[in-house]
Design a protein that fits this description.
Oligomer: single chain
Distance between the termini: 90 Å
Number of domains: 3
Strand order of the largest sheet: 6-5-7-8-1-9-16-15-10-11-13
Structural class: alpha/beta
Helix content: 25-40%
Number of strands: 24
Length: 785
């Protein structure tokens, strides 16, 4: 072939490669609009003391009714609303609802909010901050690590009625009222607090707001506008206006219970709550190792259109919405097993909804497998802006546990719904999920006052990877670190207690898995502790001592210091024969660095340095005297320790060498190459001999506030320094296993504010992320009533 022929062949090859790249890119673009969206985190607050998705499932499984009397701590005139002399314009038809017992409670510390500002913030903003934090944690994401990321926030609301009722607000807090009561800030506050830079929107479509938020979040993820998104909704009834005005305008009376799809349904039982989901494209979630609780196969929003009124139901519009959702999901109607419906509790609206569901989902459905229909409103009441997400969390949990919970207050299904004809069944008793040869699937509906409707189809999460074998449970060196933190000492103790209870209930959890998860998926807050242990008993004893505020040898405490600076001290003090052997066997990074130093020393010592230094007794063989071997050992161990800590992300601000340690300093700082340092080490040394006391005096004289000292060669200097002003810790201590000593030193550094790459610390241990308790918020009352 000629040169010209070669060029033609090369051009053709490049053209084919480009065509293949474009083909794959086109496939990805075509698939993107239908890629399932993973639910990687969930958090909620609902009536009945529900503080988590697991709490919600417990309430549903126990068939509990969460409706309760009106709260007496919000400043409401209960006699004026419910008493015998109540004025008709202010009278409530009921004295019950679904209320959050902790609506006034909040912990501003993790969010950097002052107590004063918290008191004039709408409690809906406060609830969304806490539940967003927990959603990140349940996904295995440190909430403090997301700042600057292209993450979206989409939140539904039904209005803000807290700040308009504030009275006697101090002058210094007046500037916070506008942001504290703004619906725009409902989502913006989350983005501001966590530092998120993706699309952010607050949506008011009434009862459908949180499902509309979910739909828009999925669209933003598929469209590449954000890589992760928070979606949810919230309602807190700060004033009683919902009860005294609702019968005049929304088309349904206020009732004591939502009797969803039941005979005798007589209206809406109003409630409140908050629910947040953390969403990510399924392919990304799997690649990142995030948990997948379920996937959103498809979603759609629509409008009721021209009806008899803003609250009137439109069956054809609802049917079109469901078909649109099925099309987006790529599913046939009979491939969906159950639906959590709007089920507000109106005889007509419930009948229209059920008929629309039957008309669509009944197509092609086997007679022996009717669509299972229920409504979480029968347990909670109508949680308004949070109701759609309540239905989502319910059905995610139902798919996980393989059980469709009973719908309460449905002793007799509505006679206005063709149950048999439409192949649809009201779940009047807890029902095992129908067995099929495909993933479980469920629909969720939310219809808004004003006509904006939303429907979502969820699918059971893909099977997890097989669990790690039980035998592979240890960390390198046989020691494990469990870092725990809180914004204040009480939070630290509470977090330890919560963690201890969690672990004791799950004896199969591996210590290394817990350590990795604590270190990488939880925020490093101001008050820190690290439990260091060589056994599960050591770790649990340390955690128990931390929870009980008692001292224990396995626990390191500390707070990050202002103007933190780490100073590494390299000394020339003699190390015992065999020092470094345990580290060499435990940590590949130490072994590699030690081998590199020994290879450079061999030419100068005249015998294998590694074998001589790692044995328990010195050798006089060869031309180098024992004193030369001592210097070589001190140099090699300190350099290898430095490289080990460096592999864990520890970056000192200053390295100081004393005596022979100065040669290690000059090498590590780049002033001397390793061969040059080794040549100087084995040659005549005319530097001054420096005793530990002298070194300690020099360090003490130059120490500044915020300095943490780490001694690598020995322990004498650190012992002389600690407790006399400068904080100091030794990486090696007599009578302590080397791996435990260096792990404890790392714990001290972290507790004082040194950055640590925890993923690197746990590398090579086959540790995996596991579920942990969420943060133990230390809530106080913030309610101007």
């Amino acid at each position: 072939m000629t040169v010209a022929d070669d060029k033609i062949v090369e051009a053709l090859r490049a053209s084919l490669q480009e065509a293949e790249r474009l083909r794959k890119e086109n496939q990805q673009l075509r698939a993107a609009p239908r890629e399932p969206i993973a639910i990687v985190g969930m958090a909620c607050r609902y009536p009945g003391g529900v503080e988590s998705p697991d709490d919600l499932w417990t309430l549903l499984a126990e068939e509990r009714d969460a409706v309760c009397p009106f709260p007496d701590d919000r400043g409401w005139d209960l006699d004026g609303m419910c008493g015998p002399d109540a004025h008709p314009a202010a009278r409530s038809a009921v004295a019950e609802g679904g209320f959050l017992p902790g609506a006034a409670a909040f912990d501003p510390a993790p969010f950097g909010i002052s107590a004063g500002e918290a008191s004039v913030m709408d409690p809906q903003q406060r609830l969304l901050l806490e539940t967003s934090w927990e959603a990140f944690e349940r996904a295995g994401i440190d909430p403090r690590s997301v700042a600057g990321r292209r993450y979206g926030v989409f939140m539904g609301t039904t209005g803000q009625d807290y700040t308009p009722h504030l009275r006697d607000v101090p002058d210094e807090l007046l500037g916070h009222i506008a942001s504290g009561g703004s619906s725009a800030v409902l989502s913006g506050r989350i983005a501001l607090t966590f530092g998120l830079e993706g699309p952010t929107a607050t949506l008011d479509t009434a009862c459908s707001g949180s499902l509309v938020a979910l739909h828009l979040a999925c669209q933003a993820l598929r469209g590449g506008e954000c890589s992760l998104a928070l979606a949810g909704g919230v309602t807190v009834m700060s004033s009683p206006d919902t009860f005294i005005g609702s019968a005049r305008g929304i088309g349904l009376p206020v009732a004591r219970r939502c009797r969803s799809f039941a005979d005798g349904a007589d209206g809406i039982a109003f409630a409140e709550g908050a629910g947040v989901l953390l969403l990510e494209r399924l392919s990304v979630a799997r690649a990142q190792g995030h948990p997948v609780f379920a996937v959103v196969r498809g979603s759609a929003i629509g409008q009721e259109g021209a009806t008899n009124g803003a609250s009137a139901s439109n069956g054809p519009a609802q049917r079109r919405l469901i078909r649109k959702t099925l099309d987006a999901s790529g599913l046939a109607p009979h491939e969906v097993d159950a639906v959590d419906g709007q089920g507000t509790g109106g005889l007509l609206s419930d009948a229209v909804e059920a008929q629309a569901l039957a008309a669509v989902y009944g197509e092609g459905r086997p007679a022996d497998r009717p669509l299972l229909l229920g409504a979480v409103k029968s347990n909670l009441g109508h949680t308004q802006g949070a109701s759609g997400i309540a239905g989502v969390i319910k059905m995610v949990q139902a798919m996980r546990y393989g059980m469709v919970p009973r719908t309460l207050h449905t002793e007799a299904p509505s006679p206005h719904i063709p149950w048999d004809e439409g192949r649809i069944r009201l779940v009047t008793d807890a029902t095992p999920w129908p067995g099929t040869d495909r993933p479980r699937r469920a629909g969720v509906s939310a219809f808004g006052f004003g006509g904006t409707d939303a429907h979502v189809i969820l699918e059971q999460a893909p099977a997890d990877d097989p669990p790690a074998p039980e035998a592979a449970a240890g960390q390198a060196g046989g020691v494990t670190l469990w870092p725990v933190s809180g914004c204040d000492p009480a939070a630290l103790r509470a977090q330890a207690a919560r963690l201890l209870d969690h672990i004791e209930r799950r004896p199969g959890l591996r210590p290394a898995d817990l350590g990795l998860s604590l270190a990488t998926s939880r925020a490093a807050l101001r008050h820190r502790a690290v439990v260091v242990g060589e056994s599960r008993r050591d770790l649990l004893d340390g955690l128990r001592a931390l929870a009980d505020a008692t001292s224990a040898p396995h626990v390191v405490h500390g707070e990050p210091v202002r103007r933190h600076r780490l100073v590494v001290l390299l000394t020339g003090h003699a190390l015992a024969p065999g020092t470094g052997k345990q580290l060499y066997d435990a940590f590949p990074a130490f072994a590699a660095a030690f081998d590199t130093v020994c290879a450079a020393l061999d030419a100068h010592l005249g015998f294998p340095a590694r074998d001589a230094m790692l044995t328990e007794a010195d050798t006089d063989a060869g031309p180098a005297p024992a004193a030369g071997l001592e210097s070589a050992r001190a140099f090699a161990v300190q350099v290898a320790l430095f490289r080990l800590l460096e592999s864990w992300g520890v970056r000192p601000g200053t390295v100081r060498g004393y005596g022979v340690g100065r040669l290690a300093e000059e090498h590590l700082s780049g002033k001397q190459s390793l061969p040059e340092a080794c040549a100087a080490l084995t040659g005549p040394y005319d530097g001054p001999a420096q005793a530990p006391g002298g070194v300690a005096e020099q360090v003490r004289a130059s120490a500044k506030d915020g300095t943490v000292h780490l001694e690598l060669g020995g322990h004498e200097v650190a012992e002389l320094l600690d407790g006399t002003g400068p904080h100091a810790v030794a990486a090696l201590r007599p009578g302590v296993a080397e791996a435990t000593a260096v792990a404890t030193a790392l714990a001290h550094l972290y507790a004082r504010g040194t950055a640590v790459n925890w993923a690197a610390v746990f590398a090579g241990t086959d540790a995996r992320r596991v579920d942990l308790p969420t943060y133990a918020f230390q809530r106080g009352r913030y309610w101007q009533a």
